[in-house]
Amino acid sequence: MASKGAGMSFSRKSYRLTSDAEKSRVTGIVQEKLLNDYLNRIFSSSEHAPPAATSRKPLNFQNLPEHLDQLLQVDNEEEESQGQVEGRLGPSTVVLDHTGGFEGLLLVDDDLLGVIGHSNFGTIRSTTCVYKGKWLYEVLISSQGLMQIGWCTISCRFNQEEGVGDTHNSYAYDGNRVRKWNVTTTNYGKAWAAGDIVSCLIDLDDGTLSFCLNGVSLGTAFENLSRGLGMAYFPAISLSFKESVAFNFGSRPLRYPVAGYRPLQDPPSADLVRAQRLLGCFRAVLSVELDPVEGRLLDKESSKWRLRGQPTVLLTLAHIFHHFAPLLIHYLRLTIAILRHEKSRKFLLSNVLFDVLRSVVFFYIKSPLRVEEAGLQELIPTTWWPHCSSREGKESTEMKEETAEERLRRRAYERGCQRLRKRIEVVEELQVQILKLLLDNKDDNGGEASRYIFLTKFRKFLQENASGRGNMPMLCPPEYMVCFLHRLISALRYYWDEYKASNPHASFSEEAYIPPQVFYNGKVDYFDLQRLGGLLSHLRKTLKDDLASKANIVIDPLELQSTAMDDLDEDEEPAPAMAQRPMQALAVGGPLPLPRPGWLSSPTLGRANRFLSTAAVSLMTPRRPLSTSEKVKVRTLSVEQRTREDIEGSHWNEGLLLGRPPEEPEQPLTENSLLEVLDGAVMMYNLSVHQQLGKMVGVSDDVNEYAMALRDTEDKLRRCPKRRKDILAELTKSQKVFSEKLDHLSRRLAWVHATVYSQEKMLDIYWLLRVCLRTIEHGDRTGSLFAFMPEFYLSVAINSYSALKNYFGPVHSMEELPGYEETLTRLAAILAKHFADARIVGTDIRDSLMQALASYVCYPHSLRAVERIPEEQRIAMVRNLLAPYEQRPWAQTNWILVRLWRGCGFGYRYTRLPHLLKTKLEDANLPSLQKPCPSTLLQQHMADLLQQGPDVAPSFLNSVLNQLNWAFSEFIGMIQEIQQAAERLERNFVDSRQLKVCATCFDLSVSLLRVLEMTITLVPEIFLDWTRPTSEMLLRRLAQLLNQVLNRVTAERNLFDRVVTLRLPGLESVDHYPILVAVTGILVQLLVRGPASEREQATSVLLADPCFQLRSICYLLGQPEPPAPGTALPAPDRKRFSLQSYADYISADELAQVEQMLAHLTSASAQAAAASLPTSEEDLCPICYAHPISAVFQPCGHKSCKACINQHLMNNKDCFFCKTTIVSVEDWEKGANTSTTSSAA
Question: How far apart are CA 981 and CA 975, in angstroms?
Answer without folding.
Answer: 10
